[in-house]
Every structure is written in C-alpha cells, then in structure tokens.
Fold Isopentenyl-diphosphate delta-isomerase.
Amino acid sequence: MSNRKDEHIKHALAYNPPYNSFDEVELMHSSLPKYDLSEIDLRTNFAGQDWDFPFYINAMTGGSDKGKAINQILAQVAQACGLLFVAGSYSAALKDKSDDSYKVREWAPQVLLGSNIGLDKPVSLGLRTVEETHPLLLQVHINLMQELLMPEGEREFRSWRQNLADYAAEIPVPLILKEVGFGMDRKTIEYALELGIKTFDISGRGGTSFAYIENQRGRDRTYLNEWGQSTAQALLNAQTFSGCAEILASGGIRHPLDIIKALVLGAKAAGLSSTILKLVEGYPLDEVITIVNGWKDDLRIIMCALNSRTIADLKNVDYILYGRLREANEQFSD
C-alpha cells in the first residue's frame, strides 16, 4: 500500500495550476526613485517575532522516508538562507512515536522552525506537538474540502470550533491559523479574531490544489479541482482586517514578483511550498540555496522600483486589477 504523504508529493509535483490570480495584478512602476538600493529593508514582523525576510518555507510533508528526506533538505535551505521553515503536519508522528521525519535539527541545528497540526486534532495533541518539536510557532491548518474529498478523511466537524478556542487559550507559542489552498473567508477570520488569534495564512487557490490531489487518489470529482477563492482574492477580502490581523499569503507564490504583489495586497509575508519543493527535487542543495538567496536581491530591486524602502511602504503602492480578479473585487466592493 502506498504512503498517502508520498502520494501527495507525487501529485503536487505533477500539478500545473490553470490560473494564478497574481497574473491579474499589475504594480505601478515609479520612474523617479527616492532610495538607494542599499537602503531597501526586507525585515517584517508576525507571530510575535521579527524576521529578516518577508517569505518563508511553508508546511509540506513528513510521515514517510521521502518526506523525511525532503524535510532535511528544506531545513538546511531555510537555515542557510535565514528563513522560517514550517514542517508538515505532525499528525503522523503523533500516531507513530518512531516517526522521526520531522526531527530536522540534527541536520539544521539553528533552523527557525515552526510546527503544523490539523484543527481536527484536540488541543492535547497540539500541546504534545509543541513539547516534542519546540517550535517558534504553531501553524494550525484547516482543510475542510480536502478532508471531504479524501477517501479516509474526517466526516465530523462540529468539534473544530471548540478545538480552535482551546488552541487559542492553551497553546504557549504564537499561533497561525492556516488554510490549505482554498482561500480563507472573512467570517472565519472574524471568528478567530474574537478568540484572540491574530495571525492568518489565507492560503488561496493558485498553487498546490488538495482538491486535485485527493481527486487523483479517490473518486473523480474534477469539477471541484478549482474550488475556493484565489490567493489574490483572499488577500483583497482580508484587507478589511488590516488594522487588527496579521495576514500571510500562500498558494501560488512562484517568484519574488508574486511575493511583492502579495505584500502590496496586504500580506506581512508570503509562504512558498510547491515552488520550493520543485527546486529541491530538481537541483542540488547548494544550487537551491543560491537561487533562494538570489530572491532577496530581486525583492530589493522590485521594491526600489516601487519607491518602497520597507515592507510597510508596499501597502501604499498603487496597482491595477484585471480580468476575473477585477470582476470579483468589484462585486465584493459593492
């Protein structure tokens, strides 16, 4: 029997999203610069900590030998580049104490490590995850449509809201509430804010599609492959909360320009998954590190061309929306 986590990796690598909402965002170039390139500051802050760079390696895998090998490489990339690395869902290690696929500090002792767990798990298991992994933060993911499509997925969801309240009250490290590619809606953000959660990864459609992945593994429901809201649309919807929530963006972040577009639309940082996964599958470790470090220079170049010295300045950049994104945004604005 094949490992479900390995099947996820295989299908994620094979998937080519048919639409990326960032292609419908155009940034307004600033012809007359105010800053030297050396003045551009990439630092940001979220989840109670300062970060040197406004992007991070998002949760992907674990729970298998292949997942372990990938996590080891991802952790080394993150450590070498000074990035946050969030390991994949810790659920496999909670079921099997011999699972060491998330123990990456042997390979990257100084890595900035975050952990991840599903909201279907009670807070006792969240506390175990924190105790066993010693993360800087805990990412709690909500993956309703994935569970509904997964042949072995959850079918009972009434406990999720109480679980979220328990996590907000009891987890001793900063929490990030994370979608998994379907785009977090405003009502979910409102509810979590009332519980005291401040940081949200809205993770929209445009990158890895867990609907597509589960449709490859189970019944053929391809009409649901594009379920959910795009990442740019979810960011536009979340602008309502700019004064009270920290918004992170993931889902279809392909390169530094997408990162900047996400920051312009209100994100404090952007998470990358499949983009990084394809790099580590296709290049040696040292080349991946060189590529990712090069992105930092590219971010500074783009920010300089937008007359933005800081990440906060990017919120003032003018932009144009096209196509489906413009039409949807006009509806939400009415």
Notes: The chain has a mean pLDDT of 92. Residues 4-333 form a domain with the TIM Barrel fold (CATH 3.20.20.70).
